[in-house]
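Q: Start with the shorter request: fold the first protein.
A: Done. Sequence, then structure:
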Amino acid sequence: MAKFKEAFLESVLRDLDFPITNSGKFLIDVILSDSKQDMVYVWSKIPALIDKITKLKGYLAISNNQTKVKISIDKNSVSDDVMSDFYNIVNTWSKKYKIGLDFDPKKESFYIK
């Protein structure tokens, strides 16, 4: 694995609070390779999002049912106002940086395309 790619995958795993292992790097590589976006660009914009959503109990994680990174919040532990703020932050971030997201209303989660 090229040094840049390996360092990038490790950075993504750290941002997701995921163990840095060979299987973790492989999983992230598959997820990022499946994306239709420039994930180096997308990931350069992730810290700005993380800073804002973690204050609301939002988080980024590897999806359990899709090969995507999800942006989510535990809707049962926050007020409707916080949920609204969360949606606004994620949507504003997505539009500002032109990052495509899918939304699953059942899970109230966004998925990076």
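Q: Next, the second protein, separately.
A: Sequence, then structure:
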Amino acid sequence: MRLPHTHFSHFFWQIFATLALFVVLFYSPAQSAESNIVEIMQKLQYDSDLIQKGFSLNRFELVREGITRHKVDFDALRRFNIEVFLTKNNLNYAPIIYSFINNIVEERTSLEYFLSKNQKMKAYEAFQKINHRCMQCHALTRGWSK
């Protein structure tokens, strides 16, 4: 049995359609992407701070926790379409940025390896290389190298 069309249901659908249109017209994927990348970067900064704190305090459980968190958060960065975030002025930097990302993964692998062999100074040097790659990418995208 079909229910009769009511003014309320018509009104409800008009409101729903208006809200849907508003979302489509005014919701910017770039803003969403930007907030997503900011969240990812904040997590990665926390992870790096945790690793640094572990080295500084000679508490290698903090270093390991930071590495574990970094793996998860860095994987989120690797899945992120970086080209959405780049402007047309620095879009050509995408291959360089992807290279930095791959280098960071390699350095993190070295960091883990040296920690497993109890070579703490070499592990710290690998960590410094990770931070250096991060800052190279930040400098590039922010135009610091110009």
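Q: Describe the second briefly.
A: Helices lie at 7-26, 29-57, 60-79, 82-85, 94-116, 120-142. The two ends are 71 Å apart (CA to CA).
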